[in-house]
Structures are given as C-alpha cells and as structure tokens.
Amino acid sequence: RRCARGDLLRLHVNGDSPKGIVIVLLGEAASLLSGRRAALSFHAGVAQRLFPDRGRPWLALLWRIVFGMSGTVVCDCEAVRARIARYRAAGDVFAISPFTPARVRYEPARLPEALERFAAAHRPLLFTYVAYRPEYELEGFVDALARVRGAFPGIGCIVVDDRSFMDAGVERRVRAAIEANGLGGALAFTGHLGRDAFLTALARSDLFVRTPVT
Hints:
Helix 5 (138-149) packs parallel to helix 6 (168-180). A 4-stranded parallel beta sheet has the order 1-2-3-4, covered by helices on one side. Strands 7-6-5-8 form a 4-stranded parallel beta sheet, covered by helices on one side. It has helices at residues 18-33, 57-69, 78-84, 113-121, 138-149, 168-180, 195-204, and strands spanning 10-13, 39-42, 73-75, 93-95, 125-131, 156-162, 187-189, 207-208. By secondary structure, it is α/β, with parallel strands linked by helices.
C-alpha cells in the first residue's frame, strides 16, 4: 500500500537475521513493482552469521539479489562497504558512520543504590552491554575477566544485560561459568537501564568492553 501511494521505502537489514532478509526482499520487490528502488541500510560487522557468503554459492546469490534490487545502500564503515562491493557495483554504496555527538549527551542520573555501592567498591571498573546470544561470546568474557582478576583483585564490571530474545542455553552456561570462577562479587547485572542511567554508569567506568565477535 505504501509503495502504491508513491512512498519510498527505506529498509534495514543485517547478516544475522534470516527473517529480516526475507522482509527486506519483500519490500524491495514491492518497490520495484511500483517503479522505484528502495533505499537500504546495512549495519553490523564484517563477520556476521550469514555475511559474507564464505564460499556458499546460495548465500552469494542471495546477497547479490538483496543489494542489487536496492537503490542506494548505506553501511557504517569502509571494511563493510568493500565486502558489499563483491555483490554489486560500489558506486551507490556509501559508508557513513552512525555516530553523532548527540548520542553521548545526557543528564547525569542517580544510579540504583546497590549499583552505586558496587561502582564505589571496585577498581578498575569495567562496563559492558551484552545480550544472551552466542555472538556476544559471554563465556569468553567471563574467562578473560577471571584471568585479569589475578592481576587486579579489586576489578568489577557493570553488565547491562539485555534480557529480550534470550537464548536460555547461553544464559545457563554464562551463569555456570561465573559460579565456577567465583566471579559473582565482581559482576553487577543491571538489566535494562534508561539512556541517562546507562551513560552515567558508562561515564563512571574506567573501560568499556565490547564482546561481540562482529
């Protein structure tokens, strides 16, 4: 209906979501039938579950269709742009950083009391955002933290853990690894934090740790 009204679709996809790819293909097909080509943004990293194709012909064909049916393609760095160029001419593929200073503007917030006590009691203080999914390599993070604690006994990490779309198996393995390494007192799990609280906790930390392989 939107395409029939003359709207231009701006679609978004990454290489980790088969459902997202199907939705994008439907949107691109609808756009072509209405006489226009959809704009496509592609954000994630250079090594995703389904991207690049890693020698799988059916995936190479799929990405040629996804990128070829779109008009303009926007990604977030030159390394990803170079990989997309394997599937379509690079002339209409643009690498535009998604960062803007507006993302780091915030009003300092009072953190929950337990989190305030934790932050005051641990140095160095790390901060990480994770989801309970395989690509976040959480068991590797727990192992690394256990090793680092040998040199820094007072180390602690604030963990903003996204509990939506959880892989229960990943969560069980992570909890087991934390218990096996005796790290319960070195980690503070917050669940969802609002924007101001998230950036306040991040600003209080000495180091931000990003765990995903992408």
